[in-house]
Specification:
Number of helices: 6
Distance between the termini: 35 Å
Structural class: alpha+beta
Radius of gyration: 17 Å
Largest sheet: 4 strands, mixed
Shape: globular
Mean pLDDT: 95
Strand content: 15-25%
Number of strands: 4
Length: about 140
Amino acid sequence: MTAPEDHTLLRRAIALAATARESGNPPFGSLLAGPDGTVLAEDHNTTLTDRDITAHPELKLARWAARELDADTAATTTMYTSCQPCGMCEAAIQRAGLRRVVFALSNEQLLDIRPGSGLPPVPQDGPALLDEVRAVVEGYYR
């Protein structure tokens, strides 16, 4: 549940989304705030101008947090974002150890505005060679 103080920061994320759109990019913006509401970092989508399909603001901020914040500080932060993070960004946010995400538009609501991505699904085959890959991975996550 969002609180009134969340709305101020969400409005800033929406303004960042407008900035992205004005610069010719998809309209998404995000910011990372400390526990007192201080904005630590902010960004907007630059996937087209950077020619980088991963230049989502949520991913850029998660990477910034993982690089610039210690784990205890990251665990106190909240990401405010104009739209619910995609799976790629959600995984990065989790790996960065951020405490919370507050979004304005859900992925389901986004699909009502922009149905489908227009891209065909990519077939995936696997798992395969389990014993071989297990030998490389096993023991790493201890």
